[in-house]
Amino acid sequence: MNNTRRNFLKFAGLTAAGLCVASAGSVIAAGTGSTIKDGEKALKAKRWGMVIDTKKAGTKEAIDALAKACHSVHNVPDIPGTQNVKWIWAVGFEEAFDQPNNYMDESLEKRQFAVLCNHCSSPSCVRVCPTKATYQRPDGIVAMDYHRCIGCRYCMAACPFGARSFNFMEPRLHLDLANLNKSFPTRMRGVVEKCNFCVDRLADGKIPACVEASQGALVFGDLSDPASEVRKVLREHYTIRRKPALGTEPGVYYII
Amino acid sequence: MLEKALKGSPKYYMWIGFLLLIILGASGVYLMQLMQGLTITGMSRDVSWGFYIAQFTYLVGLAASGVMIVLPYYFHHYKKFKDLVIFGEFMAIGAVVMCLGFIVVDIGQPQRMLNVLLYPTPNSILFWDMVVLNGYLILNVLVGWTCLEADRQHLPHPKWTKVLAYTSIIWAFSIHTVTAFLYQGLPGRHYWLTAILAARFLASAFCSGPAILVLVILLTEKVTTFKANVEGIATLAKIITYAMCVNVFFFLLEVFTAFYSNIPGHMHSLVYLFKGVHGHHELVPFMWTAAALGLGSLALLIPPKLRDNIKLLPWSLGILVIATWIDKGLGLLIGGFNPTPFETIAPYWPTGKELIISLMIYAIGALVVTVLFKIATEVKEETGASQKTAETAEAN
Ligand code: SF4
Ligand code: SF4
Ligand code: SF4
Predict the structure, then answer these.
(1) What is the pLDDT of residues A146-177, one digit of tens each?
(2) Distance between CA atoms of A116 and B283, rounded to whole angstroms?
(3) Chain B contact set for A1 (CB, 8 A)
(4) What ligand is nearest to the CA atom of residue A206?
(5) Chain A residues with CB inside 8 Å of B126's CB?
(6) Between 20 and 30 A from A160 (CA), which of A108, B227, B292, B375?
(7) Which run of H or E residues covers position B134?
(8) Which of these ranges, A37-41, A189-193, B114-118, B302-306, has the smallest mean pLDDT?
(9) Which domains does chain A carry?
(10) Which chain B residues contact residue A27 at CB under 8 A?
C-alpha cells in the first residue's frame, strides 16, 4: 500500500508539473487595475441612460461623426476586416431592431441607427464573466477592467446586441500613435472592450463624447430622475429599445 | 507504475516520438499565436468562439463517456466491464487534459488565467465548468491509478475508491450538463437557447464518447496482448446504439419545434446550416454529410447481426464519430453565432494555423492516452487479466 501511495504521489507530481507548463508559466495577474476616480465636478446619477433621436442622427455620415468623437477619445483602433473594434457605429433598421417590416416607409428604410452598448439593467455580459472584469456600477453603467479580463470572450457570446469587440491583435498597430488621448489607456491584445458610457469623462464632469458631438441628437442623463432631460424627451416622444423581449433591459432608447 | 511507460517496443517509441514531434512543431505555431494574438485564427467580432471551443465541447463528451462503462460496472455490477473500467477512466483523463488545453489556447490572456480563481464568480457558468472539469480530472486520476495499482499487487481496491467512483459517475453527468449550460443560458443565441441542449449534449456524448473508446480499445488490442471481453464490447456497442438513437431523436425535436412553430429565430440557424441563407452555404455539405453518416451509422448499428460483426463495428463507429463531430464540433458553434445579433451571416472557417494548434492539443491528448493505456495494458499482462490466450476474463 505504501508503494501505492508513493507511486501515486510521483504521478500526481508529474501531472501537476504538466499542468503548470500548460498554463504557460502563469503569473498571478497583478492589481485590480483601472478604477476610475471621481473628480470634484464628477457627474453623478442613479441610473444613467441615453435617448437617440434617429431623425436627427439618422445617416451614416452623422453617426460616423459620433464614432469618430468616441473612438478618438477612447483610443479605439481602426482595424480593417472582420476582427475590427468598434464602440459605436451605424446599422439599418432590421439589423438594429428585431421587427422586420415588409412595407416600411422609405425614409425609415434608408435611415441609419447608431448602436452601442446598451448598459443593460440585467446585463447578460456581467452575468457570464468569470472574473468580474465586466461589472455593473451602482449608477447602471456596465464597465470593464481591462487589466483583469482574461479574453475568454464569453461576454461576447452572451451579449445579444453585438456590442463587444475583442482585441484579436495588438491594437496599437492600428492607432495613430501621434494623436493618442493620453488621459485614456490604450488596451493590450487579448482583451475585450466596448462603449463605457464615458465613465472617464463623467468622472471629470463632462458628458459623453458622442453626446457632445451629436448637436442635440443624443440626450444623456439620469433615468431615475423624473426631472432630467432624458426623462423629458422620453415623455415627449415614442421610443423603442433594442430586443426588449430578451429581458436585459437596455438603457438606450431610440426615437423613431 | 509510471516506469512501465518508459519501456516499450521500437514501435511504441516511434509512436511516442512521432507525437512529440507534432507537439514540438505545432508549439512553434502556438508561440506565434502568443506573440501575435488570436488574429491568426479565423475568428471574428461576430464569430468570437471557433474551432478551439468547438473541440473543447466535443471532448467534454469524450470525458463524460467513460461513465457508460463505469456506471454499469459499479451500479449494476456488470462484471463484463471489469477490465474495461480502467480504460474508461484513463480515456477521461486524456480527454479532460485536451479540454483544458483547448481552453488555454483559446483565451486571449492566458497568463491571467488564475483570475478565475482569484476572483471566483459563482454566477458565471465558466467558473463552474472549471470546477467540474478539474474535479473530474482529479477523481479519475485518483480512482484509476489507485485501482490499477491495487490490481497489480493483487490487493482488493481500497474502500474509498468506491465512494469516489460513485461520485465520479454523478460528476460525469455534471461536466456535460454544465458545459451545455455555457451555451443554453445565453439570451439571443436561438440555436443554443433550448432546454434540450444539455440532454442533446449528454446523448451525443454517450454515443460518440464510447465509440471513440471502443475504437481505441480495438487499436490497443492490435498492438498489445490485451484482449477485451467480447461480450463487454458488444454491450458497449448496444449502449452506443441506444444513445445515438436518442441523439438523433432529440435533434429531430429541435427541427419540429423550429419549423412547426415557424418562428424565424428558431429556424434561422437550422436553415443556415442545412440550406444556406443570403448566399452563404459554407456548412451545407458538412451538415448533410453528418445527417447521412448519422443515419448510416444507425443502419449499421441497429440490426444485431451487423452490430455484432466485429469486422464491421469499427466502420460503423467511425462514421458515427464523424457525424457527431460535425454536429457538435462544427455546426453547433457556427450555427450558434449565425445569424449574428444583426441578422447577418458571418462565415467562419478555421485557418491552417488554428488547425495546427488544435493538432498540438490532440497530440498531447494522444500522448497522455498512449502512456496511460500502455501502463494499464502492461499491468493487465502482468496479472494475466483479459489476455489474448486466456479464454475469458475471470469474474471478479
Ligand atoms: S449591450 Fe451587451 S455588452 Fe452592453 S450591457 Fe447589454 S449585454 Fe452587456
Ligand atoms: S472576455 Fe474578459 S470581460 Fe469578457 S467574460 Fe471573459 S474575462 Fe469577462
Ligand atoms: S457614450 Fe462614450 S464610450 Fe459610449 S459610444 Fe458614446 S462616446 Fe463612446
Answers:
(1) 999 999 999 999 999 999 999 999 999 999 99
(2) 31
(3) 155
(4) 3
(5) 128, 130, 152, 154
(6) A108
(7) helix B125-152
(8) A37-41
(9) 48-255 (3.30.70.20)
(10) 111
Cis peptide bond prior to A130, omega within 30° of 0: no
Q: Which of B328, B63, B54, B96 is closest to B172 using CA atoms? A: B63
For residue A256, the SS3 value is coil
A26–B149 CB contact, under 8 Å: no
Q: Which residues contact A9 (CB under 8 A, 6 or more apart)?
A: none
pLDDT at position B8 is: 83
Q: Extract the C-alpha cell encoding A120.
A: 443593460
Per-residue pLDDT tens for B69-100? 999 998 999 988 988 899 999 999 999 999 99
Residue B321's alpha-carbon distances to B54, B235, B328, B364, in angstroms, are 15, 18, 10, 20
Per the listing, cell 475504437 goes with: B215
Of B15, B18, B36, residue with least CA distance to B26: B18
Helix (H/G/I), strand (E/B), else coil: B249: helix
Ligand 3 atom index nearest CA of A117: 4
Q: How many CB atoms lie within 10 A of CB B138?
A: 17
Q: Which three cell numbers stand for residue A181?
A: 488621448
Query: Within its chain, how far is the Cα of A96 from the centroid?
Result: 16
CA B283 vs. chain centroid, Å, equals 22
The distance between the two most distant Cα atoms of chain B, rounded to a whole number of Å, is 65
3-state helix, strand and coil shares in percent for chain B, rounded to the nearest 5: 75, 0, 25
Ligand in nearest proximity to the CA of A246: 1
Determine which residue's CA is closest to atom 2 belonging to ligand 2.
Answer: A149
Selection from B63, B52, B186 nearest residue B124 by Cα: B186
pTM: 0.90
Q: Is the dihedral of CA B387, B390, B395, B396 positive or negative?
A: negative
- The cell for A87 is 464602440
Residue ranges covered by each domain of chain B: 42-350
Contact predicate A254/A54, CB 8 Å: yes
Helix or strand or coil: residue A135? strand
Residue A27: phi and psi, rounded to 5, are -110, 145
Which spans in B6-124 are helix H? Answer: 10-36, 51-65, 67-75, 85-106, 115-118
The grid coordinates listed for A148 are 483583469
Show Cβ contacts of residue B300 under 8 Å, excluding neighbours closer than 6 positions.
Answer: B306, B307, B312, B315, B316, B319
Q: Which of A165, A166, A193 is nearest to A74 (CA)?
A: A193
Work out the number of other CB atoms within 10 angstroms of the CB of residue A20: 11
Question: What are the cell numbers at A248?
Answer: 436585459
Cβ neighbors of A173 (< 8 A, separation 6 or more) are A77
Under CATH, to which class is B42-350 assigned? mainly alpha
pLDDT bucket at B250, cuts 50 / 70 / 90: very high
How many residues are given for chain A? Answer: 256
Cross-chain Cβ contact A247/B187 below 8 Å:
yes
For the residues B240-255, what does the mean pLDDT come to?
Answer: 96
Q: How far apart are CA B373 and CA B222, in angstroms?
A: 13
- Say if the Cβ atoms of B124 and A84 lie within 8 Å: no
Q: Which of A222, A215, A218 is nearest to A239 (CA)?
A: A218
Range in A17-31, A81-95, A116-130 the model is least confident about: A17-31
Q: Are A223 and A49 in contact (CB under 8 A)?
A: yes
How many whole angstroms separate alpha carbon B8 and alpha carbon A159? 52
**Is pLDDT at B242 greater than 80 in this prediction?**
yes
pLDDT at A8 over 90: no
* Positive or negative: CA dihedral A152, A157, A159, A162: positive
Nearest to A192, CA basis, from A226, A158, A149, A221:
A149
